[in-house]
Design brief:
With 291 residues, this protein is mainly α. It folds into two domains: 48 residues, no CATH class; 211 residues, Orthogonal Bundle (MetI-like fold), CATH 1.10.3720. 72% of the residues lie in helices and 0% in strands. The longest helix has 32 residues. 26% of the residues are buried.
């Protein structure tokens, strides 16, 4: 047996790659085609952002640019204070993401582990609250911002979206907290840990991957919000990137290449943010799948 093994060393070589079956190749081709279809809007956006207005009018959106030009980007930066809008978006989205997640963590801890009275009803109310259309909330939000003197400042949307996303995060995290191992909590209580100590020393480290995913998602959702910031941020100095981009649309005309250039510049920060934290998202999604 030893001689046969030496004569045929590849017989037991588990590192040898398995052969692809026709079904594997078919699935690979299908996945590539789906990826191309999903990436085509972004590729079309990039293509038209580097065209001139005359090139776009002459050859249409699907044609390859006759020459790559930065005129659309220059025109966009002349019309819009992009750095100011970028700072407003980064500031508001970052505060909303971390404040909303922290608020959701404490609320879900009280609901899922503290087991306050009527915790099921409270969770149901939070779920219903996240389903209410923003159009139905805009009047009380507008007059509330006006009364608190936060209208036309980024703090108006920070307050609104921190509460809204905290409600959604509480609904998500409370279901996670309800399945938390009671043995760990009882052991911490026996050691003399207070509820606040249990939250930050026991619960927080375990649910940190889930919290990281929630922070990333809330950041992206807040960045892309349009309707409520459009109403509450009428002052150009306080507008976020999506609102600044909407000012390029005139009543009777629109410069497509400039809009594409602005959309590309608006998309790059979130794309960079997603690429930086994609490993965090992967860990958070798979956390708890293998114990």
């Amino acid at each position: 047996m030893a001689t046969a093994t030496l004569l045929n060393p590849t017989k037991f070589d588990r590192r040898r790659p398995a052969r692809r079956t026709p079904m594997n190749w078919a699935m690979l081709v299908l996945a590539v085609l789906i990826a191309i279809v999903m990436a085509s809007p972004f590729l079309l956006l990039v293509l038209n952002a580097f065209k001139t207005g005359a090139d776009y009018s002459a050859h249409g959106p699907l044609a390859w640019p006759t020459s790559f030009s930065l005129d659309a980007f220059s025109s966009y930066l002349e019309r819009v204070n992009f750095m100011r809008a970028l700072w407003n978006s980064v500031l508001s989205s970052t505060i909303i993401a971390f404040a909303g997640t922290a608020l959701a963590l404490m609320a879900s801890y009280a609901i899922g582990i503290g087991r306050i009275r009527a915790h099921t009803a409270i969770t149901a109310i939070l779920l219903v609250a996240t389903m209410i259309p923003h159009e139905a909330l805009i009047y009380p939000l507008f007059y509330g911002a006006q009364a608190t003197k936060t209208l036309n400042t980024v703090w108006s949307i920070v307050i609104v979206f921190t509460i809204l996303w905290a409600a959604y995060g509480t609904y998500i995290l409370s279901s996670v907290m309800s399945t938390f191992p009671q043995e760990i909590l009882e052991a911490a209580a026996i050691d003399g840990a207070t509820r606040w100590k249990i939250l930050w020393s026991v619960v927080f480290p375990i649910v940190r991957p889930t919290l990281s995913v929630l922070v990333v998602f809330i950041f992206i959702w807040s960045w892309n919000e349009f309707y409520i910031p459009l109403i509450l941020l009428a002052d150009p100095a306080s507008q976020t990137v999506p609102i600044a981009l909407s000012t390029l649309r005139g009543q009777h005309s629109i410069d497509i290449t400039v809009v594409n250039a602005g959309s590309l510049l608006s998309l790059i920060p979130t794309l960079i943010f997603f690429l930086i934290f994609q490993r965090t998202i992967s860990r958070g999604v798979t956390a708890g799948a293998v114990k």
